[in-house]
Amino acid sequence: MARTILPFGPQHPVLPEPLHLKLTLEDEIVVEAVPALGYVHRGLEKLCEVRDYKQMIQIVERVCGICSCLHALCYCEGIEQMMGVEVPPRARFLRLVWGELHRMHSHLLWLGLFADAFGFESLFMQCWRIRERVMDIMEATCGNRVIVSVNVVGGVRRDLDAGQCAWILEQLAIVEKDLKQIQSTILSDYTVCSRTKGKGVLPKEQALQLGAVGPMLRGSGWAQDARQTGYSAFGEIDFEPVVEQDGDSYARCVVRFREVLQSIDLIRQGIAKLPAGDLVAKAKGMPDGEATTRVEQPRGELFYYIKGNGTKNLDRVRIRTPTFANVPPLLAILPGLELADVPVVVLSIDPCISCTER
Amino acid sequence: MDAVRGLAKTMFEDGYRFLTMSAVDLGDESLDLLYHYDKDLDLKHYRLTVKKGQAVPSVSPVYFCALLIENEIRDQFGVTFSDIVLDFGGTLYLEDDVRTSPFCKMSVTQIKKEG
Questions:
Q1: CATH fold of B1-115, please?
Q2: CB of A4 within 8 Å of any CB in chain B?
Q3: What is the pTM of this model?
């Protein structure tokens, strides 16, 4: 059969950011997918040579606005490791709270976009309506809705008083109630199931071999989550990764939905166990040596390699973002799909091109 | 140098996930290539020091997912990888006519041979 080559993106209704896939089709079936990147690459890693290690926090927060808090956290943990800084317990718990708020708003953003991708406009609207309350919490506690900028080397720059903690818990109770109301739609509505079940299946063994991370990996049956390493305050609270077995777009959707509910529980635990004490420990000297750190971003494992040279500038900041890791598995699951399913399956990895093209 | 792919095969057979690679310009005429692997949240790192412009065996025939990072390192540091499963030829991020490696402190200029 004659083959057709179809460009998918870089501008496409389901893609908020430019990603280009060159799809080779036989009739309406995809037989090969080749990515093309570089539309918005900014070379942010290189800025470590001209910005000092403290200014780099603002830079890494702008790798991706949606998960800015976790980029800063991962970077700060690396610098703290190199400088031997022990972060105060209160700061570690506060980092957990803001990090999980970020996961909630990111997953709700994605759930809305995913619903929009298969034409479920009212579900899109409900997800984003619920997300607004999470954004309100961040604005009230940090002064900003998305780039909250709370992490500094050695701790956090903001605190939560008892009144704010009580208010956050009230707001989260409303968010939880709202999520329960849309739960049956997300998990069992005919439209959602027919457009996602059995689409873009990533088998368990292949997920690991192709380097999948985050909900992509956990949706294929692997109980692996960087939060299990106990960074921030995760070593002091109850945490089990959310896992689904089927490896399809539906499984990835279910993982993310359950993770939003899980984040509410983690924030409640974090606030309940929030210890008194300092917000920041003083860092002495300049970063020297090498460090690797990782945290669990909403889209999956985020990895930083940092090399210092004993001056205020770093030799190297290397950022491996989750979408960068999830592109090869995406290339593996597209062949065999009908063209009409491609947009939904592409969106099912929650692609963040801003992260990918640092 | 040849051990790179052999090591990758061993890691693959032992059930390790290929996390990523990091390239670091050492400022002189060499680069560090770090290979990061993970198994059950346990990280392993291997370091390979190469001269700028020297070809390195690709691990993408073993770990398909290495193709993106190897192409990225080619773009940014000018390292060429032999037998890479999908070679963008230095154009993953860069335009065709770019001949320098923007992440190198002293850049490698890539010259295309005619014919």
A1: Beta Polymerase; domain 2 (3.30.460)
A2: no
A3: 0.91
